[in-house]
Known about the structure:
It contains one helix and nine strands. It is α+β, with helices and mostly antiparallel strands. Strands 1, 2, 3, 6 and 7 form a five-stranded antiparallel beta sheet that branches. A four-stranded antiparallel beta sheet has the order 5-4-8-9, with no helix packed on it. The chain is elongated.
Amino acid sequence: xxxxxxxxxxxxxxxxxxxxxxxxxxxxxxxxxxxxxxxxxxxxxxxxxxxxxxxxxxxxxxxxxxxxxxxxxxxxxxxxxxxxxxxxxxxxxxxxxxxxxxxxxxxxxxxxxxxxxxxxxxxxxxxxxxxxxxxxxxxxxxxxxxxxxxxxxxxxxxx
Length: 159
């Protein structure tokens, strides 16, 4: 009896799948479906890297896989005892600013090349005494500039 019940249930499931057309809609509107052809302008990114160029603007460099071994410091400035750096990832085509030895409330800005909303990003130092900004698109590490405004009133930028 158990076997007959299992077979009956399988027949009902098979009939339902067959009647619904395997979950698809066979009304010929294939033309309305989006193309699955990949864009040729996207470059192949290494495993773990989630963005490139303008797609990185405004995003966290660590979460997008652009930090660590893929990043290098391209310029730095010391303001008082505070270090401000431009970090750049050639793989991601993006830069961000990092501030260390800072005071909570110090402000950090990165400005990239080009315009648009993603060409400038800000961050504020919290109780960890360091911070980094979201990324901006940059063709090179020298195409971005980091600036800091300290709570002491001192300001400075990388060159």
